[in-house]
Amino acid sequence: MQEAPGLRHLAHLDVELAAPIELGDGPRGRRRIIPIIGGTVTGERLSGEILNLGADWQTVLSDGTAELDTRYAMRSHDGASIDIRNFGYRHGPKDVLDALGRGEAVDPSLYYMRTQPRFETGDARYAWLNRIVCIGTGARLANGVRVSFFEVL
């Protein structure tokens, strides 16, 4: 039997968001687009800025679960352009999700927000990002999201 893989911290992302664009109810749930307008990336191996480019194409399912489907770009501290696609789920008790929806500060341990980020770059200095598997933990803030990415070893 194989041992469970370990995790190594990759980076914290503080992502700034604009107001959601509500698309209304679709066949799978309530659809919305949340523009990504900036932010920072801080980590030992990956740091830089989130560009004003991208969005979360989110679907809120009938049970309140938010299906997260984000695509955005960053520029590393040394000038590399890196594409980030991040998929995941946020769910929890109704009162907690309602508080998040009102923009209230909520302890992230009270709800589940996990993601699967994928990276792509043509910059040789960061080519290793094209070949790693990561997971993310997140917290919804009033005007943004804080996500921590961990490389699966």
Q: How is this structure best summarized?
A:
This protein is mainly beta. Helix content is 5%, strand content 59%.
Question: Which helices and strands, and how do they pair?
Answer:
Layout: E1 7-17, E2 21-25, E3 30-42, E4 48-60, E5 66-76, E6 81-91, H1 94-101, E7 112-120, E8 134-141, E9 144-152
Mean pLDDT: 95
Reading the helices and strands in chain order gives: EEEEEEHEEE
Fraction of helical residues: under 10%
Radius of gyration, rounded?
Answer: 16 Å
What is the CA–CA distance across the termini?
17 Å
Largest sheet: 8 strands, antiparallel, barrel
Poorly predicted sequence stretches spanning 5 or more consecutive residues: none
Bin the strand percentage: over 45%
Find the count of extended strands (DSSP E, 2+ residues).
9
From the helix content, strand content and strand pairing, which structural class follows? mainly beta
Number of helices: 1
What would the principal axes of the Cα set say about the shape? globular
